Fold this protein.
Amino acid sequence: MSDEFLRCIRKKIELIVQSIQDNRNEWIIWSDVDILFFDGLGQALQNVIGQANGKMLFFQKETKSDGEVNTGFILIQCCETTERFFREVGQRLEVERDKNEQAIENIMLQEGVIDCWGYLPVNFVARTHGWPPLRHKMIYHANYTVGSDGVGQKIRQFKAIRSMDRFGFPAICYFVFLRSLEKLSGLVKFKN
């Protein structure tokens, strides 16, 4: 991770703390930019908030059994507890300068620094949850890209998701086939 990226992460945490202070007793969303939002999200968020058993709700990182979270989309109740949590995230980022906020937040959650958190419902999906994603999703996070073409990979994911939503199962088959070809072509070296 570059120094510039880590500086941006520290600034992000400062802005989360400021947002919590500015919106006391309300719920806010902090989101990465590589997320698609779908019809019905407003009502889904109201339902999630109404049933929330925590002050922060995160994506599952990959599966609930691994106990880690993905910080690309967080629903936060603005209160003293969450403000303290994110202040500590910021303090730890200053000391552990080789880590990003997701790593720090996962460490803190495992340490029990805050015990009033939970996972977003399964229809809040990320790339790491598997491909193709659920058909009836509220948001899609194009996370986990590998290599120098990360932005291009995310854009291709967005296009694939839109096609799948528009054309259904045939589009899913098509994109699964393309992905399989990409994997195979990476394994096979062609001779001229």
